[in-house]
From TrEMBL:
One Pfam assignment: FAA_hydrolase
Record's protein name: Fumarylpyruvate hydrolase
Keywords: Hydrolase, Metal-binding, Pyruvate
Taxonomic lineage: Bacteria, Pseudomonadati, Pseudomonadota, Alphaproteobacteria, Rhodobacterales
Superkingdom in the source lineage: Bacteria
EC numbers, comma separated: 3.7.1.5
UniProt gene name: nagK_2
Enzyme class: hydrolase
UniProt-listed Gene3D superfamilies: Fumarylacetoacetase-like, C-terminal domain (3.90.850.10)
Keyword Cell membrane: no
Residue ranges of every copy of the Fumarylacetoacetase-like C-terminal domain listed in the record: 27-226
Length: 227
């Protein structure tokens, strides 16, 4: 066995409701998965093939604070439910997909919208707008055995007490089993993978000092302060 030439990279971890730690491997995010959000972003809401982008595992941040990032003056909130996998594989069927789910949780896909827009205009990848440090504030993982498969339920986000985003999980164009199955055709999924399932309409800017509260039925709430 060879000696490591630098210290071993630490596996990123997020807490599990009721105790325990969930180690994160990869983070996949589906784009425009609610029809109303697709429309507000200027796209056709019809059921076209899904597309995904990625964040980094350590972008998931359970601290309750979101530091306003550098090089942007237009940072937006996107309220989402995430899915945490306990196993994976390739070519997973829709029927078997939920067998791979460990649990669910709350997350925000914070976006440097101005930088994302610049990348879109140039036909370049979005990572600079999506995968920056602490860009996915999150709550703990709730075990699937405790909350059941989440295919419906209200999702809401308020900013300083004002409702900004409101929808229902049943409005997702691509449901959780379909997302898992589709991803497994292109990637080898594995235990520790996390999938952000898309955001309803109402995305908008945040400012320093704002307090964001995200809630989903059966998953409680997540409070995040912009610092």
């Amino acid at each position: 066995m060879h000696d490591l030439v630098i210290p071993a990279v630490k596996v990123h971890e997020i807490p599990v409701e009721g105790g325990g730690i969930f180690p994160v491997r990869r983070v996949y995010c589906i784009g425009r998965n609610y029809a109303a959000h697709a429309i507000e972003m200027g796209h056709d809401p019809n059921r076209e093939p899904p597309f995904f982008f990625q964040k980094n595992s350590d972008n998931l941040d359970p601290s309750g604070e979101f530091p306003y990032p550098a090089h942007s003056s237009d940072v937006h909130h996107e309220a989402e439910m995430y899915v945490a996998l306990k196993s994976g594989g390739t070519k997973i069927s829709v029927e078997d997909a939920l067998d791979h789910v460990y649990g669910y949780g709350l997350s925000l896909d914070m976006t440097r919208r101005d930088l994302q827009g610049e990348m879109k205009k140039m036909g370049r990848p979005w990572e600079i707008g999506k995968a920056f440090e602490r860009s996915a504030p999150c709550g703990p993982v709730h075990k699937a055995e405790d909350v059941g498969p989440l295919d419906e339920g209200a999702i809401r986000l308020s900013v300083n007490g004002e409702i900004r985003q409101e929808g229902d999980l049943n409005q997702m164009i691509w449901k959780v089993p379909e997302m898992i199955s589709y991803l497994s055709d292109y990637f080898e999924l594995a235990a520790g993978d996390v999938i952000l399932s898309g955001t309803p309409s109402g995305v908008g800017p945040v400012n320093r000092g704002d307090v964001l509260v995200l809630s989903v039925d059966k998953l409680g709430s997540l409070t995040v302060k912009v610092t």
